[in-house]
Amino acid sequence: MALEGLHHVTAITADAPRNVDFYAACSADIPPEHALQGFAGVRAHSSRPPASARLLGALGFVPEGGDGDWVLAGEQRHARWGYDQPPPAPGVQGAGSIHHVALSAPGDAELSHLRTVAAAAGARPTPIIDRGHFHSVYVRKPSGVLHELATRDVGFTVDEPLESLGHGLMLPAPRESRRAQLERELTPITNPRPAP
């Protein structure tokens, strides 16, 4: 299926450890065990996949098979990473395109450790950035893909209660002055849950 011009594949991964405290799609008529659980993995275009092998290995990815695919596995989460040859025309960043791929870290201690590991593997990670709902570090892999390492310990309930999540547009403080403009420009999303 294609959403905003990007291709997505729905996969049933019965062997995957489930993140039982979060469901990517919740609805009263869909039991949690049948809800979308998140992303099983990501594929990116790159003409130089081997250039990122050292960094991927340092970040904990393990090669899978002989075609350049990788797996990152933890106790509760895991994901696949792979490369495809890019199309002949260069990509253009714009609406509907993916800017970066985020990886989860439990908190600042792990984020700081991953930042150090990435730098030791030859990357140039950013300093830790406070995004309000989480803290993050950005690392561009030699293959050209931008990764965000983001903490999951702060959370979206830092500025609104759980019951009202997704019912309004929440903006980080530096973007609040542009609220009217952003509300006009963003594609509206219908929340299937009833308002609190």
Structure description:
With 196 residues, the chain is of the alpha+beta class. Strand 9 (135-140) and strand 10 form a beta hairpin. Helices cover 13% and strands 22% of the residues. Residues 16-23 have low confidence and may be disordered. It has a four-stranded mixed β-sheet, with no helix packed on it. It has a domain at 17-87 and 96-159: 2,3-Dihydroxybiphenyl 1,2-Dioxygenase, domain 1 (Roll), CATH 3.10.180.10. The relative contact order is 0.13.
In terms of topology, how is this protein built?
Blueprint: E1 2-3, E2 6-7, E3 41-45, H1 53-58, E4 62-64, E5 69-73, E6 78-84, E7 101-105, H2 108-120, E8 129-130, E9 135-140, E10 146-151, H3 179-185
Parallel strand pairs: 3-6, 7-10
Antiparallel strand pairs: 1-2, 4-5, 5-6, 8-9, 9-10
Please compute the radius of gyration using only Cα atoms: 18 Å
DSSP strand content: 15-25%
Number of helices: 3
Second rung of CATH, namely the architecture of the domain at 17-87 and 96-159: Roll
Which residues sit in consecutive blocks of at least 5 with pLDDT less than 50? 16-23
- The CATH homologous superfamily of the domain at 17-87 and 96-159 is called 2,3-Dihydroxybiphenyl 1,2-Dioxygenase, domain 1
Distance between the termini: 32 Å
Total strands: 10
